[in-house]
């Protein structure tokens, strides 16, 4: 609308006063000649009394003359102290208010700075010579480089830094030399590390989420991967609000790693569960028990909502409709993943435990507890090797879905998921791997 309104004004002037621009230009030329001839003796009021022009035309002509002085001052791309004195003198002779003159000077500096910054951005790196050039422009209006960028080019500067960061992490990795160039560029723009962290915050979050998804794609976070991700979070300067999410995720994955090594968590202060003397509780949380019923009309899954408890020698489930416990020695096969455990008991139909929350540690705790109880009759269904997704496939899938859940578009708790489960013949190819958040992954079940 503002642009349309300006167009109406210009069109109206051309219709109602077709010679207006030429007239103002003529007054400006006369004014410039007079001020150059008379110098300090020049009087705007005297010129106005002699000139055959309206007050409005004179005001416009004054600014045209001042812009002529500005163009001269910026001919070499910067304004020296001596040139600034000339500009102040011209503004004073033309009776242009100091604030308006300063505004006009800044506008020219912005245009010059934008051009120089665009040239510097061509290779994604600001070298020393380009940094000096940018600083000279900002000094011309009595401003530091950082202050000028923050005041007039905050969005452009942030967009530039985000673009460089995206280029640094294009292949899913952050090279040390690329990061150093980015921090150096930030410094040369007069911006702080905190401002860099703020500028790249959205991209940094997705990059760390990508690293996490890659690390847990083999269903385990190694100590080396944990250190790498923690170092990455520190390096990128992620704020506490974001770190809390990553800390929870890493703690959960660390629990899984330790559980697989036999270091299981201990739950104290249990109430409402019949725990035997000396029995250790490793897990207690809401879950649903699904029991397969084979009827003439077809298979039906009977669901019971209650609490799952895993101790050092048995698995217990309690609800208002069904409660039981099964010793590990009675479990002849088991498998599981985030949010789901599948059990095969001796002479019993298959059972499925679905967790009410997106808790990824349950199966690892069960697996660790069974291993510690040394029940040799238990055969673990081994899928880890066949479920492993090659890195190049993960990278292509991440780019395909833009670092978002394929179902809901969420950008946290992301996991690489097999569309057709490996247990049912699914492959590790691009077409059979998708990106899901943990919540959507829980909804998608092998039962389908």
In brief:
The protein has 448 residues and is of the alpha+beta class.
Instruction: Please bin the fraction of helical residues.
Output: 40-55%
The description of the largest β-sheet is: 8 strands, mixed
SSE string, helix = H, strand = E?
HHHHHHHHHHHHHHEEEEEEEHEHHEEH
Sheet with most strands: strand arrangement: 4-3-2-1-7-6-5-8
Q: Radius of gyration in whole Å, from Cα? A: 36 Å
CATH class wording of one domain: Mainly Beta
Average per-residue pLDDT, rounded, comes to 83
Distance, first to last CA: 54 Å
Count of individual beta strands: 10
Oligomer: single chain
Report the portion of residues in β strands: 15-25%
What would you call the shape?
rod-shaped
Per DSSP, the total helix count is 18
What is the fold named in CATH at topology level of one domain? PH-domain like
Unreliable residue runs: 11-16, 375-383
- The helix-and-strand class reads alpha+beta
The H-level CATH homologous superfamily of one domain, spelled out, is Pleckstrin-homology domain (PH domain)/Phosphotyrosine-binding domain (PTB)
CATH-level-2 architecture of one domain: Roll
Describe this structure in words.
With 448 residues, the protein is an alpha+beta fold. Among the domains are: 208-263; 281-381, Pleckstrin-homology domain (PH domain)/Phosphotyrosine-binding domain (PTB) (PH-domain like), CATH 2.30.29.30; 386-443, no CATH class. The chain is 52% helix and 15% strand. The protein is built from 18 helices and 10 strands. The protein has helices at 2-16, 20-38, 44-50, 55-73, 81-93, 98-121, 128-139, 145-152, 154-168, 176-188, 193-199, 201-215, 223-236, 240-260, 362-373, 384-387, 391-401, 438-443; strands at residues 281-295, 298-311, 314-319, 324-327, 331-337, 340-345, 351-355, 379-380, 414-418, 433-437. The protein has an 8-stranded mixed beta sheet with strand order 4-3-2-1-7-6-5-8, covered by helices on one side. A two-stranded antiparallel ribbon has the order 9-10. A hairpin with a 2-residue loop joins β2 and β3. The longest helix has 24 residues, at 98-121. It is rod-shaped, with a radius of gyration of 36 Å. It starts with a helix and ends in a 5-residue tail after the last helix.
């Amino acid at each position: 609308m503002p642009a349309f309104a300006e167009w109406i004004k210009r069109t109206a002037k051309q219709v109602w006063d077709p010679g207006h621009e030429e007239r103002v230009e003529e007054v400006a030329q006369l004014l410039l000649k007079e001020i150059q001839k008379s110098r300090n003796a020049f009087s705007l009021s005297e010129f106005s009394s002699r000139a055959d022009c309206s007050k409005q035309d004179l005001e416009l002509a004054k600014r045209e003359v001042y812009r002529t002085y500005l163009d001269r001052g910026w001919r070499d791309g910067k304004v020296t102290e001596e040139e600034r004195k000339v500009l102040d003198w011209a503004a004073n002779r033309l009776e242009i208010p100091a604030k308006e003159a300063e505004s006009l000077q800044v506008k020219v500096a912005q245009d010059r700075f934008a051009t120089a910054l665009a040239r510097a951005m061509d290779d994604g790196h600001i070298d020393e010579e380009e940094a000096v050039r940018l600083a000279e422009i900002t000094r011309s209006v009595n401003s530091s480089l950082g202050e000028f960028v923050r005041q007039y080019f905050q969005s452009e500067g942030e967009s530039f830094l985000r673009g460089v960061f995206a280029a640094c992490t294009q292949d899913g990795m952050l090279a040390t030399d690329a990061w150093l160039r980015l921090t150096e560029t930030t410094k040369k723009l007069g911006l702080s590390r905190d401002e860099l962290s703020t500028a790249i915050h959205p991209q940094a979050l997705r990059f760390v989420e990508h690293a996490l998804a890659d690390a847990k794609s083999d269903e385990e976070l190694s100590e080396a991967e944990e250190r790498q991700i923690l170092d990455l979070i520190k390096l990128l300067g992620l704020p506490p609000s974001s770190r809390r999410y990553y800390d929870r995720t890493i703690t959960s994955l660390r629990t899984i790693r330790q559980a697989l090594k036999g270091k299981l968590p201990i739950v104290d202060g249990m109430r409402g569960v019949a725990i035997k003397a000396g029995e250790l509780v490793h897990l207690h949380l809401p879950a649903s028990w699904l029991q397969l019923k084979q009827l003439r009309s077809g298979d039906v899954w009977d669901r019971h909502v209650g609490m799952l408890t895993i101790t050092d020698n048995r698995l217990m489930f309690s609800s208002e409709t069904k409660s039981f416990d099964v010793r590990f020695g009675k479990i002849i096969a088991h498998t599981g993943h985030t949010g789901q455990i599948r059990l095969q008991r001796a002479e019993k139909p298959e059972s499925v435990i679905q967790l009410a929350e997106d808790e990824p540690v349950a199966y690892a705790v069960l697996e660790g507890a069974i291993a510690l109880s040394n029940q040799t009759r238990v055969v673990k269904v081994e899928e880890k090797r066949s479920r492993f997704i090659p890195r190049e496939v993960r990278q292509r899938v991440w780019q395909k879905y833009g670092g978002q859940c394929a179902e809901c578009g969420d950008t946290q708790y992301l996991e690489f998921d097999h569309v057709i489960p490996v247990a049912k013949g699914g492959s590790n190819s691009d077409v059979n791997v998708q990106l899901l958040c943990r919540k959507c992954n829980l909804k998608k079940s092998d039962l389908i």
